[in-house]
Amino acid sequence: MSIEQHIKDHQNLYLKMLEESVNMDSPSKNKHNSDRVAQWYANQFENLIAGGAVKMIKNKEYGDFLRCQIGDGDKQLLLIGHFDTVFPMGESEKRPFYIKEDKAFGPGVYDMKSGILEGFFALKALVDEGEFPSDRSVVFFINSDEEIGSRSSKQMIMDEARKSEAALVLECPMEPDGSLKTSRKGCGRYKIIVEGVSAHSGVNPQDGVSAIEEMAVQIQRLHALNNYETGTNVNVGVIKGGLGPNIIANFAEAEIDVRVQSSEELNRIEEIFKEFKPVSDGATLQITGGVLRPPMERTDGIEELFEQAKKIGEVIGMDIKESGTGGGSDGNFIASCGVPLLDGLGIRGGHAHSPKEFIYVHEIPKKTLFLANLIKSLKI
């Protein structure tokens, strides 16, 4: 039997497992449920893939991680996925998995529980049909905290990346055309805290120093850093401060999101943040925070992997395209290690992080076949 036919024959099993996984809530910060989901994936990998081995990696704060491995060749290929979602407990009970026409819906179905199973079934097809490449081992690292910045898994991901020749990230592709992601912006989160001096706004306003006025100046300075040509985005998304309209505000806070295309630009923005000073006499200013994910820049290694992927796609009738995005993933950490990778290899769909989230059912066998051929044929 061919790999393609094997994948088609197992689509009903894929959908059954997808339904079961989507109907298990796994919020990033709920360790109890995340551990339950991690164990479920571990069981599925071992049951599906002959010779597959899973190591459960304990995590004190968030859900446990999985290190799934198949093969013992000298060249390691890293697959990356996450089972945590942005949705709270009870979400799957409110809107459980269902299929309508060509779309499958449910919390986390697109981002990215379908991608994890895509990886499982691609590996299963290769092993069952005797097509798994003998020169490599595949490590599939699955984490539980990607949606909150991979706080506890970042270092392990980077450690695995450094042992790998290349990596494939099974996150959502770029829509509407399903492009692979060959670059991602780096991102940082910061908070500015301004302290002023309170006073009565009618009796002695001259004795006060308005933290809100100071913050207004700083916000303008921050937004002036936006440069759409270079891809630098600075957004003050949350502000708060003051106690009442008749009080000169003695405090104000702002939360800032920063996105940049290159490490050089990220360093430049960080230096600017360090140099911020208050403009109002008597006000103090404190900036906290820093880089969450470094940029995933399109390197020669990524370009070479993409060109291989494009040719592999042509063989099975797929027109593989590439694009960049402002969103981050665990691919950013892998790229920072100098390891070539392709991102966005998941099942096509839309509306991530939304109650409208879905995948296209007809895309499941196509993308699983493409992934299987990448694992088998990429020159690493």
UniProtKB/TrEMBL annotation:
<dbReference type="InterPro" id="IPR036264">
    <property type="entry name" value="Bact_exopeptidase_dim_dom"/>
</dbReference>
<dbReference type="InterPro" id="IPR002933">
    <property type="entry name" value="Peptidase_M20"/>
</dbReference>
<dbReference type="Pfam" id="PF07687">
    <property type="entry name" value="M20_dimer"/>
</dbReference>
<dbReference type="InterPro" id="IPR050072">
    <property type="entry name" value="Peptidase_M20A"/>
</dbReference>
<keyword id="KW-0862">Zinc</keyword>
<keyword id="KW-0378">Hydrolase</keyword>
<dbReference type="Pfam" id="PF01546">
    <property type="entry name" value="Peptidase_M20"/>
</dbReference>
<dbReference type="InterPro" id="IPR001261">
    <property type="entry name" value="ArgE/DapE_CS"/>
</dbReference>
<feature type="domain" description="Peptidase M20 dimerisation">
    <location>
        <begin position="183"/>
        <end position="275"/>
    </location>
</feature>
<dbReference type="InterPro" id="IPR017150">
    <property type="entry name" value="Pept_M20_glutamate_carboxypep"/>
</dbReference>
<protein>
    <submittedName>
        <fullName>M20 family metallopeptidase</fullName>
    </submittedName>
</protein>
<keyword id="KW-0479">Metal-binding</keyword>
<dbReference type="InterPro" id="IPR011650">
    <property type="entry name" value="Peptidase_M20_dimer"/>
</dbReference>
